[in-house]
Design a protein that fits this description.
The structure is a homodimer.
Chain A lengths: L3 H9 L2 H12 L3 H10 L8 E5 L6 H14 L4 E7 L10 H7 L8 E7 L7 H14 L5 E5 L4 H7 L4 E6 L6 H4 L2 H5 L3 E4 L7 H15 L11 E3 L8 H18 L1 H27 L4 H12 L5 H10 L2
Parallel strand pairs in A: 1-4, 1-5, 2-3, 2-4, 5-6, 6-7
Helix pairs in contact in A: 1-2, 2-6, 4-5, 6-7, 11-12
């Protein structure tokens, strides 16, 4: 499944070929990289939207609502869901997956779960790679669902055009449940389950964090706080409106190109990190690394010269 | 002040030459690296002890007690103090510096303050470099004082033989005041100001964290919890005893060499990171980087190929 014909079939809409291509790319080895090199020039058309929030925030229910809305407008939607548990053990996200199952036979929707562990290149880099496949295959928008608790999730936020951060009342202090770096890159804040107790206070807290305390890096854009109730559907239109408004803002201000450049820069940086890790820890270079460390420990080589040997394979 | 003669004077005990050499190395440029390459083969003799804890924990008072004890035993002690504020604005550490001023005329003690910002190679790497100068100049032990709140401090902990983590009662929840990664690498825990209310509970909390919750990466070593009162001097002998016991443990178990290797590995990794940052952001390569990002954003070049161009300067 690495022939140009198979790739062409996958990108042309053959779902089984697409599934195989996604799996092959997710394996993140040399073959994956060769495939990506072929696919990458075909990308750059889809809007990528990150949707992040703690477990129990109702991300998947909200995503189901977004899929329905976009599909009704004739768009083909892809979802990349980064699960904290393996696809097999399931856990808390199993219910969400069942909820998304209603789209199982919908040819215009493709939902891909991804385990959050075991990715040699890192979750964020692999998420970007899968996004490239969907992008080249004509899906638009591409929704990337993450938990918003680790560095990986912050990295993912740098690889999408729009970052939606979900919060719900009743999970304790807002600041505690969010990785700090994530509010800085939020384009839209959503208070989901807004019919529940504490929703008003959460909206107020988020508003004051935005106006006073928390730095937000988005130029000339004040992140709106949208109240939704994914179970009833209330507020979903407001969220779609906010997403459209953010997209229009990016285009109107010229910020869109800056965002695309920032995404490219973040993905290059992830690839640099991966390549250095490979040179440090790869099975072939393991022996070399031990020898380098021993030479530095013995004062035969300076740490800096050792660093150059790793980077430049001198 | 880069001549071999000047380096020889600095390492032979000329304090003005030493001060100039430290400043030159701290500047962290090409000349610094050339100097370090000359100095590094002369190092590997001093014991390096990291002392970390939040502001107000009494680190400097305790260090003053340690200096007095080591000096009385005929040892030449160096201190590298990483200040969160600039040396000029002073702030909370000014009082500490005055307290350490008693050693100003003591030829066997050298105290070096280092601003925590503006180091191109990172605080941890620069701390290691200054340590190499003191090491080559015959100082032993070398005490490295840090705040224990950021990634830099965790990095510093990987560049010393023994990590002492200070806590004091009354600063709120233990877990909150410590960077999580720091307890994992603590060799000795100190509850300072142990005459104050809450000290017993803090000792109990730390003990249960060590026995139950918190992972500690130190093989075959149970970090002792030492109660001190730097102002009265109570418990300082116990801390010296714990430091000696840890050193003896490292030597007896063969763990000392493993630690030296780990320090070498950490310093190589910091140098790799610095070199990559230099290639990414250096003034000379800034234009190249923008061009690379633009090429990736335009889909003319894949992120992975761009990464290889940065690393391999292809």
């Amino acid at each position: 499944m690495t022939s140009t014909a198979a790739i062409a079939r996958a990108l042309a809409g053959d779902r089984r070929a697409l599934a195989r291509l996604l799996s092959r790319v997710e394996r993140d080895d040399e073959v994956s990289q060769t495939l990506l090199a072929q696919i990458y020039p075909l990308t750059g058309h889809a809007l990528r939207i990150g949707i992040t929030g703690p477990p129990g925030a109702g991300k998947s229910s909200l995503i189901a609502r977004l899929i329905a809305t976009y599909s009704a407008a004739g768009r083909r939607v892809a979802v990349i869901a980064v699960d904290p548990t393996s696809p097999i053990t399931g856990g808390a996200t199993l219910g969400d997956r069942i909820r998304l199952g209603e789209f199982h036979d919908d040819q215009s929707v493709y939902i891909r779960s991804m385990a959050s562990r075991g990715h040699r290149g890192g979750v964020a880099a692999t998420t970007a790679s899968l996004g490239h496949v969907f992008d080249a295959a004509g899906f638009d928008p591409i929704l990337v669902e993450t938990l918003g608790v680790g560095q990986d999730e912050v990295d993912v936020a740098h690889l999408v055009h729009t970052v939606v951060v979900l919060q719900v009342p009743g999970l304790g202090d807002t600041v505690q449940t969010l990785k700090a770096g994530l509010l800085e890159v939020a384009d839209i804040l959503v208070v989901n389950k807004s019919d529940q107790q504490g929703a008003d206070r959460l909206v107020r807290d988020l508003a004051s964090m935005l106006s006073l305390g928390v730095r937000n890096d988005r130029p000339r854009w004040s992140p709106p706080i949208v109240r939704t109730c994914a179970s009833s559907g209330d507020g979903v239109d407001d969220l779609i409106g906010a997403l459209d408004a953010h997209h229009a803002h990016l285009v109107a201000t010229g910020e869109f190109q800056a965002r695309v450049n920032a995404m490219a820069a973040a993905e290059i940086a992830l690839n640099i990190r991966r390549e250095i890790d490979r040179r440090l820890g790869g099975s072939s270079s393991g022996k070399d690394w031990s020898d380098l460390v021993a030479a530095v420990a013995e004062r035969e080589l300076s740490p800096r010269d050792a660093a150059h040997r790793v980077i430049d394979r001198r």
